[in-house]
Amino acid sequence: MTLDRPGEGATMLRTFTLLLFCAGLSLGVTPMVMPSQPELWIESNYPQAPWENITLWCKSPSQISSKFLLLKDKTQMTWIRPSRKTFQVSFSIGALTQANTGLYRCCYWKETGWSEPSKVLELEAPGQLPKPIFWIQTETSPLPGCNVNILCHGWLQDLVFMLFKEGYAEPVDYQVPTGRVAIFSIANMTPESEGVYICRTHIQMLPTLWSEPSPLKLIVAGLYPKPTLTAYPGPIMAPGESLNLRCQGPIYGMTFALIRLEDLEKSFYLKRPIKNEAYFFFRALKIHDAGHYLCFYYDGSYRGSLLSDILKIWVTDTFPKTWLLAQPSPVVQMGQNVSLWCRGPVDGVGLALYKKGEDKPLQLLDTTSIYDDTSFFLNNVTSSDAGIYSCHYLLSWKTSIRMTSHNTVELVVVDKPPKPSLSAWPSTVFKLGKAITLQCRVPHPVLEFCLEWEERATSQKFSVDGDFIISNVEGKGTGTYSCSYRIEAHPNIWSHRSEPLKLMGPAGFLTWNHILNETIRLFLIIQLVALLFVVLWIRWKCRRLRIREAWLLGTAQGVTMLFILTALLCCGLCTGVLTEETEIIMPTPKPELWAETNFPLAPWKNLTLWCRSPSGSTKEFVLLKDGTGWIATRPASEQVRAAFPLGALTQTHTGSYHCHSWEEMAVSEPSEALELVGTDILPKPVISASPPIRGKELQIRCKGWLAGMGFALYKEGMQEPIQQLGAVGREAFFTIRRMEDKDEGNYSCRTHTEKRPFKWSEPSEPLELVIKEMYPKPFFETWTSPVVTPGSRVTFNCSTPQQHMSFILYKDGSEVASSDSSWASLGASAAHFLIISVGIGDGGNYSCRYYDFAIWSEPSDPVELVVTEFYPKPTLLAHPGPVVLPGKNVTLRCQGAFQGMRFALLQEGTPGPLQFRSASGNSADFLLHTVGAEDSGNYSCVYFETTMSNRGSYLSKPLMIWVTGLLPKPSLLAQPGPMVAPGENMTLQCQGELADSTFVLLKKGIQEPLKQQRPNGYRADFWMPAVSSEDSGMYSCVYYLDSAPLAASNHSDSLEIWVTDKPPKPSLSASPSTVFKLGKDITLQCRGPLPGVEFVLEHDGEEAPQQFSEDGDFVINNVEGKGIGNYSCSYRLQAYPDIWSEPSDTLELVGAAGPAAQECTVGNIVRSTLIVVVVVALGVVLAIEWKKWPRLRTRGSETDGRDQTIALEECNQEGDLGTSTDSPSSVSQGTSVEQPVPI
């Protein structure tokens, strides 16, 4: 591709080079600096006329040199070889003449040749100052609103620097720096800030003598919106194929430019626009056309737009391989969800997931849906989902690029999690008085482990970390054990059991050594008693005979010496071989070296090396290159570290770096070597591992120097990595589960950037793993707790049943002390390594090994020695609280001040830490599972860093844990009452069931106990003087026995305390409702939060209270409607009769009105209607009967007397049943006298 107008292209290149520097901030690209460029300046002993005697000085920036070279006008050369290597040399010019005028530069000799030349110094005619050089500081960005620094170099010291702007007569700014460079700052860049700036200098004493002007054109970038850059047919093409890059902006008539960042000067292409876009055509792509492209546009005044997003163009004949990882694991349980994470170094293309045996892809991801956290997702997997999966690139355009093989993942679907491994430490055979730790292990996070004893089906133990301590008291520990686990995703499903492990006890009888030791101890006691009797006999004999014969004294001395020698011999036999203590002379702690960058995708663009020491007495750090080249020194900061900026890497930076720390009287060992191998390659990692053991797990450590990198492990003979890990810090640990003969060989590791596009490091130096026959690992421990304070005395004990062995002590994998074998001693071998006074830098992971002539032992289990009092102390909290019931779980959270630390939990009375936890945050949780009486006590925690000698924090404040429910609960009372006014005193009385107990006062919401007391009797009085509102709350108490501190009582009943001038208002309610019914009463219930009070009920409209009550119940009737109205109530404490509470909320009682009255009226109408109906019915009946009487009276003349009598009787019976009638005798006589008929 050629430029449309070469002249304009060259001009635009110079102009937009500044623009690229200005817009570097928006791109994340740092302009290339030349740190190897030397500095050239002028010195003169004639300050007012420097041209009278000129000396040029040349200084190398970073290292000493043996040769320096001065160039004039690119042809004449003068070189100097100093007598010794130095940083700078001088070239004497003398008086400036016409012969001396010209352009000067200097170089210095490096190991790979001459360095880059310095900036050009122009010496003009005598009587003139040299022309300054003027440039913009590349780290700044002249975007609108940003600040810009402009540097002006004047070659001489003590000059006055003046800054002018074209078109203005007065200077914009001036400076008088102490050096040779002035820095002018232009704040808050705007379009008005554009223009040509000029820098000139003059001597302070001669303001009329000026240098030649040095102009600089400043353009503000980003005045127009950024364009978009796309590739057709796609960003990945084969060599020889054609490619079209389209740059499109929102404004018509602009000129477009295309840039390749890998080579700015040779890849600056200009295009005339087609409307608002331009096409850059590559007819036949070549390999060197690959790279990162961007574009921009500008107007006729060279005002440019923001730069487009970077477009990566690949030119390759073979696709790079993709990587496929299964999360959380390739072994999953049926019904679980699995994410298949596919990534490759090529971006801008889609991805397809294939399963072996199927032609079509299972899932697709196009370019728009691929992010850093997207993946293929398999939901609710079944046995049919098991198989081998691979990931391929998905192209939407045609190309001749060949597809290579792809990384595959075999997905295994199981009904239960796989079985764990179970091992015993130190062995599977019990020793007298010793316990065995069973270790259940799996390679992934676990919610809980379970240990089962096959001889007792109901015997189970649970553990979070997989460690179970088995004791053999009365021979009850022997038997066959197995373990299982469950994971957090499926807490109800337990894994398959591990292989059974059998624990065996002693041989069934006391060993000969035990019998011999007990016999010698008994004999020693008899000897001492006999010695006492001999001394007493001699004193008695001397007093009785009153003589001091020589033979008697000699006999006494001889007998005494004989007994002393015998006692010493017995002590030696009883305790075994006297082991000599080897004092550990600790060297100055080795510092740590690492690298940091603000360009995670391209770290080589700006790299800074950091050196940190674990010793607090470090004064200075030194960085060395290739073992000899001294780079720089830096004073130690408060964090005991120092930074060494390298900037952008060049070929001069390649080499091996390490650092030392300097103290007042010593220099440390060198750090691990950091090797820089190229300008665009990550630093070479370092690989290491402990000696491999057949059948055991092996961890391979890969240290990568930079944080946030990915790691890959390779084995010689295999092209693909055998293991890969994501970003896990500056180092990663690869695990070989079970070391076998097939695992032997040479291993190496590489690191790569975590985000696309991937950049890889060189492979590390190979690590050879060879399995050798070894002795069993020794027993290694400290005689005190491994968590110590500075100045403490620590003794390490390393022992083995093997005889005549030599021992080596290691700290963090490096040998620090040794102890030779003793051939004069019989029995087991042991060595004691002593640190007389522990320092801050003495912490770390210690281990030991023993050996004879040719065979070594396995490494011992490590002991983490933590030296405290370096970091601030953490806080320890208990959830749900420090007082718990037996069988419950308690979580202890240790909260530190820094992230990425390791935490340890300690219990008072226990020699070592109970649990260890590593956390990515600043806190760790320790689970106490199914607590019992033995879990009561004081707990504390500490955090420490694992990379720098285990420097730890102060111990946290102790937290007491009480396991309650073992004693009867106490009672808690308040005197004078549960409510007091602020400023008054009160006493809380906790009454227990057992004497001589320790009582603890607790408050809801506060984890720590408020107070503790140990009274003589059964009750503790907790006095609270001058209480305030903060003392209000719910209180309870517990007690425990000092003679058995593991036994504590239950909580007392909670007691609420009120500290207030006025008691809180009560509540008022009505029963059964707030509406009166005819003849019914309403009961008002007033309730308050305090006991022992008197209630009063008030009715609106009445001046005096209506009723008083102790239980708060008031009966209200509605006689004559007097019960209707608003009511409220209040109360007073009997102990304080003058203090009344606030009145309750008002409650309204309603009488017979409204809907209730309407209901009553309807009932009355119904009843009245029924009464009227009954009365009318009775009237009708009487009227009918009345009409019958006239017919009865007319029948008297037509009937005889008998008929009249009968009719009369009938009428009497019908008319009045209650009146008496004539007797039958009178009727039978036939009396005919006519009687009046009553009506």
UniProtKB/TrEMBL annotation:
Domain Ig-like as annotated: residue spans: 31-106, 320-391, 418-483, 776-868, 872-941, 968-1037
Any Pfam family hit: Ig_2
Task: Please provide the record's keywords in A-Z order.
Answer: Disulfide bond, Glycoprotein, Immunoglobulin domain, Membrane, Repeat, Signal, Transmembrane, Transmembrane helix
Its domain of life?
Eukaryota
Position of the signal peptide: 1-28
Q: Does the keyword Signal apply?
A: yes
- Enumerate the Gene Ontology biological process terms: immune response-regulating signaling pathway
The gene name reads IGSF1
Region feature (Disordered): 1211-1239
Species name for this entry?
Bos mutus grunniens (Wild yak)
**What protein name does the entry list?**
Immunoglobulin superfamily member 1
Stretches that traverse the bilayer: 520-538, 550-578, 1165-1186
Q: Does the keyword Signal apply?
A: yes
PANTHER family found in the cross-reference section: MHC CLASS I NK CELL RECEPTOR, OSTEOCLAST-ASSOCIATED IMMUNOGLOBULIN-LIKE RECEPTOR
Q: Which InterPro entries match?
A: Ig-like_dom, Ig-like_dom_sf, Ig-like_fold, Ig-like_Receptors_ImmuneReg, Ig_sub, Ig_sub2
The annotated regions of Polar residues compositional bias extend over 1218-1239
